[in-house]
Amino acid sequence: MTMDPLATDCSPYPLDAPDTLRRFDDEWRTKAVLALAFGIRADGAFDRMPILADALEEAGCDDLFMLNHCRYCERHTPECWVLECVLPGGHEL
Ligand SMILES: [Zn+2]
Question: How far is the CA of 92 from the centre of ligand 1 (A)?
Fold first, then answer.
């Protein structure tokens, strides 16, 4: 399987993937997704990103680009674009 390089890099923000932001569905921001994303960012607990992928999937997220990034990137940063999608502008719970 060929991995999109962006799937393994969350910084810098993938400006050539703006569709991801446009397609982020409000319905994917479930309580579980928000709590996970907030906790990951607050605690720097990036080992929970695959759990966030599961929560996003359960919420109906079918964006494989986003799910794969959560699951396969091994060096997430607090500025991770997936976290930015879930918590735009660092918004709090
Ligand atoms: Zn990331």
Answer: 19
Evaluate whether residue 53 is within a structural domain. Answer: yes
| Domain span holding position 69 | 48-93
Classify residue 87: in a domain, yes or no: yes
pLDDT value of residue 15? 55
Give the count of domains, the chain: 1
Q: For 86, how many CA atoms within 13 A lie in the half-sphere containing its CB? A: 30
**Is residue 7 within 8 Å of residue 72, measured between CB atoms?**
yes
Residue 85 domain flag: yes
Ligand 1: centre distance to CA 5 (Å): 12
Neighbours of ion ligand 1 (CB under 5 A): 10, 73, 76, 80
pLDDT for the residue numbered 21: 57
**pTM above threshold 0.70:** yes
